[in-house]
Amino acid sequence: MTVVLITGASGGIGRGVALACAEAGWTVWIAARRSAEARAVADEVTAAGGTGHAVGCDVGDEASVAAAIARVAEDGRGLDGLVHNATSGLSSRSGSMLDISVDDLEDHVRVSVRGCYLLARAAAPLLEASQGSFVVMTSEAGFEGKRLLAAYATVKASQRGLVRVLAREWGPAGVRVNAVAPLGDSPAMAKAFVSDPAMQERVMGRIPLDRLGDPITDIGPAVRFLLSDDARYVTGQTLMIDGGSCSIS
Hints:
The chain is of the alpha/beta class. It has helices at residues 12-23, 35-47, 62-74, 102-130, 141-144, 150-170, 187-195, 197-204, 215-227, and strands at residues 3-7, 27-32, 51-56, 81-84, 133-137, 176-182, 238-241. The protein has a single domain, classed as NAD(P)-binding Rossmann-like Domain (Rossmann fold). It contains 9 helices and 7 strands, in the order E-H-E-H-E-H-E-H-E-H-H-E-H-H-H-E.
């Protein structure tokens, strides 16, 4: 049975990925700081046909990440896939680059970049043992830059750089590393639209498919593909799941 761990999966796109994996009958570890919400999604995973587990994890804290990966290892079924979906709680807040404090920037870095690095280091032995897959949830902001989202765009671009490095370093061991840039209907997106009312018009006006992606039926299956053996010859790539919004690859 395929075993995956998903960070930041207590809601939104992470939850959608978890439920898509559940539909395949996989074991899914929901890693999040909010324990009650994580347990609720783990129960949804089990109800949807998978086996759900919840584990506490603050991705920016080295000891917390190590403990979460150790908990998965103790279960004895290994780890076939890892998805880093967690983002800073400030991700949906828009503002000029000059208005972003250093503390706010550091929070973005802590979760998106430091978290990615810590997860990769901790999970590497398990992923090498399974010749598994590491998927990082990035954003089209990391390609284009986004007006009023300087910190978010910065860390998302950094994630793509790390993905390409890891793909080259881990390839000989059979471990695949890819990124996904989704544009999905989520609480974070709803907050962003509220924070910057003009954003909704800008975002929706450039999507050829004329809708935001559904986390469970649109984004989740694509991430599941990258985690699966069907993508065994795909590594170092960024898959755009955005309805055609971003023309840059």
